[in-house]
Amino acid sequence: MNVIAAGRSGALEFKNWRIYEKEACRKYFGDIVDVPVDDRMSLGKALQNYRDAEYLRYYPDPETTTKEQWENSILQIEMCLDKKIKMFPSTPHGFDSVQNKNSAFKRWDENGVTCPEWFEFRNLHEFFEGFEKTFGTKFIAANSIPFPFLVRMNNGVSGNDSYLITERSDFYKKVGILQGVMSRQRRRKFGIAPTMICVKLLNTICDLYNVNHSFRLHVCGDKIISGYARVSSPDDWVAITGKFTPKIQDAWLYWNGKCQEIIEYYNSGQQGNLVARAVQLLGLNYQGVDAVIDFDTNRLVFIEVQPTYASGYPKDRDLKGGYLPPFWNPGQKPLVDFLVRERQSLEKILPIYYNNWLDKEAHFDLCYKELKRFLG
After folding, report:
1. What is the model's pTM?
2. Total structural domains in the chain?
3. Which residues have CB under 8 Å from 3's CB, separation 6+?
4. Backbone angles phi, psi at 290, to 5 degrees
5. Which of these, 86, 91, 111, 359, has the minimum number of CB atoms within 10 Å of its CB?
6. 315 half-sphere exposure, CB direction, 13 A CA radius
7. Is there a single domain that holds both residue 58 and residue 122?
8. How far apart are CA 30 and CA 15, in angstroms?
9. Cα 51 from Cα 80, distance rounded (Å)
10. What is the mean pLDDT of each run of 10 residues along the chain (376 residues)?
11. Do residues 369 and 314 both lie within one domain?
12. Bond prior to 148 in cis (omega within 30° of 0)
């Protein structure tokens, strides 16, 4: 046995391996044994029983893993410290940066990697102090807010438990809602360290097409394997794939061209591949990285990392639901129809997107080939 794959159990077990992923992992890393990572004993027993295993695929649920589960997995691994094992896509000590955005921001700040201006808070007193310390202006004394910002849970995803504040009248209501969410999460022991954060809203609206944008970049080791851009209307700060409409397809094409340029630029060795460095500084080596261009500075700004980026699952194929062919993800009909209809021309413009991402079998083959080279 060469790989111990420690993943989710129960109802979410089917998400431990994405479509074509396990085959690619076995091809480059060897035989695999699957064990739960979210109980008290299974991982430790596997580490003891499979002494010849060279690799640990550490793959807890990035959204629901509790502090107890996380600390227990660390303890099980540390009990086998005599065993040298290489880990991917995360390490236990780097996993808190996967779930908690404030942890990732803190490490990026400490190492000179650009992320949004931010601070964490648990109550209004800490908010007012943090606002003045971070942004250099008093929030409470202002007649109107000095700039738009987000208040959100540090473990929220896809815009959930996140609120854009543009008016003072909205602020107290939204923070009150988040305080309730934080209290419930802590009472139910949800997540590793739930808290609230304030994040200054970046200027991500493209004047040329009047859209908001974001990038998802798939990083393995020292290389960006693939990626894509998402666009949305300028009044929608959550730019995700599902926001595509035929009305903004020209903007989508323009920004995915920009994404390909970013991939080629950093893979060429420019700045020592800043995107890969941003991942590795968190104690990670295979992640989906979300980033944007801040038009106020024209810099690439890192937002979060995601090891379980959606790509379709074998269960989707078997049950004919969820993510489906031809691309698995994206699966939204307007975008799929556009990509199929215009394939002959788009494939020439966006070869990395078509060959390294839309083709999921090729995507995971490239990912695990690069990961094996990186880990040795």
Report:
1. 0.94
2. 3
3. 25, 26, 29, 30, 31, 32, 33, 53, 54, 55, 56, 57
4. -95, 135
5. 111
6. 8
7. no
8. 21
9. 10
10. 93 92 98 95 92 94 93 88 84 93 97 96 95 87 75 88 88 94 93 95 94 96 96 78 85 97 91 90 96 96 94 75 85 92 96 98 98 96
11. yes
12. no
